[in-house]
Predict the structure of Transmembrane protein 230.
Amino acid sequence: MMPTRSSVSAGIPSSKVKYSKLSDNDDGYIDLQFKKSPPKVPYKAIALAAVLFLIGSLLIIIGALLLTGYIHVSSPDRTFPVLIIGILVFLPGFYHLRIAYYASKGYRGYSYEDIPDFDD
């Protein structure tokens, strides 16, 4: 036996239900679906960029000290790889920290969406 309409809606009092009339020019869209949600800050990616920036800065400083002779090295062939690795680690860290800084300040053209997120 099929339940009747009155028995299905008997649990909801009619005074609690609110109806609104649809507009005549309804195209199937509502304004809420075009609102942009607040930006999600990728904290893990920013922390990784800060670590890369610090390690790269440290390696560049050590490489520069090795190159100038403040730190004595038995074989000077080891100075250039330290500098190269330092530069390769420094650049992505600096780049992503710069994007995060400008996005936090609200500069036009910068957003947190430009930083790769690891929470996927």
Observations:
- The chain is about 50% helix and 0% strand.
- The CA atoms of residues 2 and 8 lie 10 Å apart.
